[in-house]
């Protein structure tokens, strides 16, 4: 599994805002949206393109069209915080949703939604899940996608824990993880340390 850490001053500044416990919900949402643009930019680096030609006001110019846009799968809820950037940067993409909540007692992922098409026929997929903690939620989503014939799978995260990355690596389900940082460890509740808290709650509240 390839790991790409987006190490850039502008990404680091946004991540700092996300980590800060005094950041209010609106600012948190905006910072995640802006950071998502950078993560998705990197996650899409190897997309295949086909040549097109356009006419500029001065003459003909060579350009490209994305030939095979990936399916995008936000893992609910927190994955929605990364979704807007994909829609802006890859407007031709299709979206399927996987809903999974980590049981905070057992730490096991409990699925509650799945709108993934039955046959993905080698389609590449961007899986959006800001927090890769134990990796159980991302593995659950990627297992569904693999079972349905997905091609290249990229996990797009804001933060990853070393334990979660090891787990994901051991499953062999994921081809690539793009993240803004790899943090120190998980705590006894399997929260990422130092992390940013509960991304879903900080984006959407505790309702
Ligand atoms: C959080 C987070 C990830 C998952 C990470 O979601 O957004 O999806 O936990 O933990 P894991 O790697 O140990 O599985 P949560 O289950 O709290 O749901 P939410 O997104 O609705 O807040």
Portion of residues in beta strands equals 25-35%
Instruction: Please count the beta strands (DSSP E, at least 2 residues each).
Output: 14
Order of helices and strands: EHHEEEHEEEEHEEHEEEEH
Task: Determine the number of helices (DSSP H or I, runs of at least 4 residues).
Answer: 6
Determine the N-to-C terminus distance: 36 Å
Radius of gyration: 17 Å
For the largest sheet, list the strands in their spatial order. 1-11-9-7-4-5-6
Bound molecules: 1-O-pyrophosphono-5-O-phosphono-alpha-D-ribofuranose
Provide the CATH architecture. Answer: 3-Layer(aba) Sandwich
Q: Largest sheet, if any?
A: 7 strands, mixed
Helical residue percent band: 25-40%
Taken together, the total number of domains comes to 1
Structural class: alpha/beta
Kindly provide the name of the CATH class: Alpha Beta
Gross morphology is globular
Mean pLDDT, nearest integer? 97
The poorly predicted ranges are none
CATH topology: Rossmann fold
């Amino acid at each position: 599994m390839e790991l790409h850490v987006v190490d850039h001053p502008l990404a680091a500044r946004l991540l700092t805002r996300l980590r800060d416990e005094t950041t209010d919900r609106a600012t948190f949402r905006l910072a995640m949206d802006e950071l998502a643009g950078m993560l998705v930019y990197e996650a899409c680096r190897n997309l295949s393109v086909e040549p097109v030609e356009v006419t500029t006001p001065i003459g003909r110019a060579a350009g490209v069209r994305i030939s095979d846009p990936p399916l995008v799968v936000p893992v609910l809820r927190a994955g929605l915080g990364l979704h807007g950037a994909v829609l802006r940067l890859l407007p031709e993409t299709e979206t399927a949703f996987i809903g999974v909540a980590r049981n905070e007692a057992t730490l096991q992922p409990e699925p509650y939604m799945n709108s993934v098409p039955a046959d993905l026929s080698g389609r590449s997929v961007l899986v959006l899940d800001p927090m890769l903690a134990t990796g159980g939620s991302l593995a659950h989503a990627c297992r569904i996608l693999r079972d349905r014939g997905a091609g290249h799978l990229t996990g797009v995260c804001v933060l990853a824990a070393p334990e979660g990355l090891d787990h994901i690596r051991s499953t062999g389900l994921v081809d690539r993880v793009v993240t803004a940082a790899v943090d120190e460890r998980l705590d006894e509740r399997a929260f990422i340390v130092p992390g940013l808290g509960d991304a879903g709650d900080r984006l959407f509240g505790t309702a």
